What does this fold into?
Amino acid sequence: MKYRFLHELAAAGQQQAKTISQIMLEEEIAESGQTEEHIFGQMADYYQIMKDAVNKGLTTNTQSKSGLTGGDAQRVQAFSANHEPSSGEPASTAMAYALAVSEVNASMGRIIATPTAGSCGIIPGVFVSAQERFGWSDEHMVRGLFCAGAIGYVIANNSFISGAEGGCQAEVGSAIGMAAGAMVELRGGTVDQAVHAVGLALKNSLGLICDPVGGLVEIPCIVRNGFGAVTALAAADMALAGVRSIIPSDEVINVMLEVGSAMPSKHRETAQGGLAQTPTGRKIMENLKKRK
Amino acid sequence: MRFKNVFSIIGPPMVGPSSSHTAGAVRIGRVARQLLGTIPNKAAIKLYGSFAETYQGHGTDLALAAGLLDYDTDDARIRHSLEDAWSSGMEISFSLGVGHVPHPNTARVALWAGERYAEIVGASIGGGNIMIHEMNGFDVQCTGEFPTLVLLHGDFPGVLSGITHVLSEDGVNIGYMDVDRKARNGEAMTVIEADTKITAATQLKIQQLPHMIKSSIIDLTLRS
It folds into this structure.
């Protein structure tokens, strides 16, 4: 894609009266030399895998190989069915779906990295629950994935998307920004609002470290996906309501790069600090080693 | 640009749990296997940084072995790839490396199959995407995202124009190209990322050019 920054995407969208997803799809066609049917079809296949992962996480045993995690999506769904969830039913459903996909990932199931496996629950959580709630077509959702992809492309090429490079803000934070911007577009917001949603969302996860217990993509990754889906909905609502990211979204992306580059190695996916090195985190790691 | 297209952000389809430590590791293994050109009977893998710290929990060992078997990132056989490798007669060893590496998730993979030998250094840069930094001792870069031609040849005038001439005749557009040599008039390596598939016929024509020593095609879009 020839657009390197979100402000360029916003300007192109306004000038050409196009959505971010339209621009991304056209750029992908030009770049790859493939037909629109082929590229759209590939993304549609990916969306189906996301829906399958939501379903699998809600209906099958998702206990991970380590035995540490699994079943949380089903707990949240059952609670929501029997009680009034504090965050409201739509947020609770998005959270359950995000947990479901993350748990499928932790149990070595099939998922789509969005943008990574550690953050693979957030976009399906937001998308699949919103599709059910608003009655949107699969085609509408697949277009939304191109919008999310364009946002992620800008973040990845100006900052990073892996925990080892930039901490959890780079993975879960990026996924929240992508889901928030895409949700604005899916609901008919402007290109400008979609870009503001990204900045608003990213600001809320700046500084988040990557500190997986035992080095596994389980604790705290899975619950952070659940929280991430809810935050994405909140950021989309703020942007749709007209709240602006006063620090432009491209500048917020640069802050993520600055913060991630300054993060010590122990907080970048090495399991040498943070939650991984708490007394309980260390005990879990020792027990895992003994079992081998 | 480190990340090339929309599917490097939304994608790949993969078996969990980690895009860097599992999917990226599968791809690094596959590049090494395809550079070798056949199934290895021996593999020595050195892990650095976060790969070294957390490889067992993430199944990085399973993922690299899966790549050596030419499995793709979403292949359900990744779960038991080490057993598959052993039963195919492959001997795999893992060790922990120290020293400077280009990226926190880096692996050095050395493979043997009879007389044949291949060695790469690959980094897993996030979301299942990889960057190869070294092949058979040459400092050459490629991503594995495009059909890639890897050529070992003598360092003489006209070799590159011979290669690009064949590619232009066959309608293959070059997206990225990298050349490194060990010494003037010594051995050199040229790596070409193409926009379209490189056919066996094109490879054969290039193989027959003067000063050409060896050619390999790396294409991770092919399914085994």
Summary: Chain B has two domains: 14-135, 148-218. Chain B touches chain A at residues 1-3, 5-20, 22-23, 49-50, 53-54, 56-59, 74, 76, 78-79, 103-105, 124-128, 195-196 (CB under 8 Å).
